[in-house]
Amino acid sequence: QLQLVESGGGLVQPGGSLRLSCAASGFTPDYYAIGWFRQAPGKEREGVSCVSTSGESTNYADSVKGRFTISRDNAKNTVYLQMNSLKPEDTAVYYCAARPFRRCVLSDPSYDYWGQGTQVTVSS
User: Nearest CA to 86 among 48, 42, 34?
Assistant: First the structure.
């Protein structure tokens, strides 16, 4: 059974950086694209970024372009989300998810497996 575990969240000041990790087990990395999603209080869950199975294609939400970078290391079964220049609006629970396709999308209904989430709080 595929499992995803997020880590790296925490409290950071505006303008700071965090790197989130998504460790996967129980699957072959080549068969799954990985996406990062987030949900803030009172708001619907939104797609943040995703990466294709081989890492050659990525997508980002407009709100994080130029600030966040997604990458993956299939040998380590891990996907990363480097978050720079963080803003209070980035505060949310961040989830990683997997879909059994090569291409990644920022639409969460297509993702079959989800992690438990990690809290990111951007505040002074």
Answer: 48
- Residues 28-40: pLDDT tens digits? 777 899 999 999 9
Give the model's pLDDT for residue 54: 86
Give 65's contacts (C-beta < 8 A, 6+ positions apart): none
Beta strand segments in the chain, E:
3-7, 10-12, 18-25, 33-39, 46-51, 58-60, 68-73, 78-83, 92-99, 113-114, 118-122
Report the residue count for the chain.
124
| Whole-angstrom distance, CA of residue 6 vs CA of residue 100 | 19
**What does the CA dihedral 61, 62, 63, 66 come to, rounded to 10 degrees?**
100
